[in-house]
Amino acid sequence: MKELEKRIGYRYKNLSYLENALTHSSYANESRSGDKSNERLEFLGDAVLSIVVSDYIYRHCPELPEGELSKLRASLVCEKSLCRFSKSLGVGNYLRLSKGERNLKGHERPSILADAFEAIIASIYLDGGMEKARRFILSFVEPEIKNPKPRAFKDYKTTLQEIIQKNPEEHLSYVLTGEEGPDHDKHFFVEVHLNNNVIGKGGGRSKKEAEQQAAREALELMGY
Known about the structure:
The protein is mostly helical. The protein is built from eleven helices and three strands.
């Protein structure tokens, strides 16, 4: 437990908070010593995580509109990201699981690792306050924002065009609806129209990027 405490980078006044954060419901149900699961901590940790991430990206990503902020936050607090953060700490090695859950490799299950990470956030918050929890969260979130992992380019416009071309009578067009910011840091807003109907909206640092995002939203709404 002390080794994990070092990995977390926070020294607990009451180490029982961390022990609780690592206690899965399967262990709590099997234990006869009255151990409580980390589910309540997970609930609290989720709320603390959301406010810290929301506050940070609001302050540090002023160029992003509300929709893009929501997408960025979702990518940072999703199960996949939290599981990755949890693995980097080696949380799976410290989880308190029932024998059955351990045999089923519950210590490697993404949902369990992500939940434990949120519970750890709450344990720090309860033991040391919001600022300590904020520092812990941002130690993972800041690098993700400042050094985003490269993503394979997807040509949403071409995909959308190919789908619409199946019906020759349909007409697809992109309309610039606005722009904001100084010349060196513009942000453009675009709508994609199918005939006279708006089927997607997007924003970006260039008109092309905004068009791609509008096409992506249109594809999502169409179920692709």
